[in-house]
Structures are given as structure tokens and as C-alpha cells.
Design goal:
Largest sheet: none
Shape: elongated
Distance between the termini: 15 Å
Strand content: under 5%
Order of helices and strands: HH
Radius of gyration: 14 Å
């Protein structure tokens, strides 16, 4: 269960970076192809959602 949460936190953090790069708010690294591409912001949002599900999944499974 700890691995699910760790993977979820990683996905949430990476998704946040993708969103910021997709909207052109994070210019790191400077020559990244994702800058200003809204499709990467959408993909980052989906990744954050998946990560949030992984974070909450152990709690949901433990309720049974």
C-alpha cells in the first residue's frame, strides 16, 4: 500500500509540472518541447487525477 501512495505522489508532482509547462508558466528546462502546448496541460491534469486515485486507493480498500 505504501508503494501505491508513493507512486501516486510522484504522479501528482509530475502532473503539476506538466500543467505548468503546458500553460507556459514553468520554463524549466528552457528548451523543452512542452512549453506552451495545452495538450500537455491536459495530460498533466489526467496524470494528477490518476495519482490522486492511487493515493486514496489504499484508504478505500482498507474500509472493507
Amino acid at each position: 500500500m505504501l508503494m501505491l501512495r508513493a507512486a501516486g505522489m510522484f504522479l501528482v508532482a509530475l502532473g503539476c509540472i506538466w500543467i505548468l509547462q503546458g500553460f507556459g508558466l514553468l520554463h524549466w528546462p528552457a528548451d523543452i518541447f512542452m512549453l506552451g502546448e495545452r495538450q500537455w496541460a491536459l495530460r498533466g491534469g489526467a496524470m494528477m487525477l490518476g495519482g490522486a486515485i492511487l493515493i486514496g486507493l489504499p484508504r478505500w480498500l482498507r474500509r472493507d
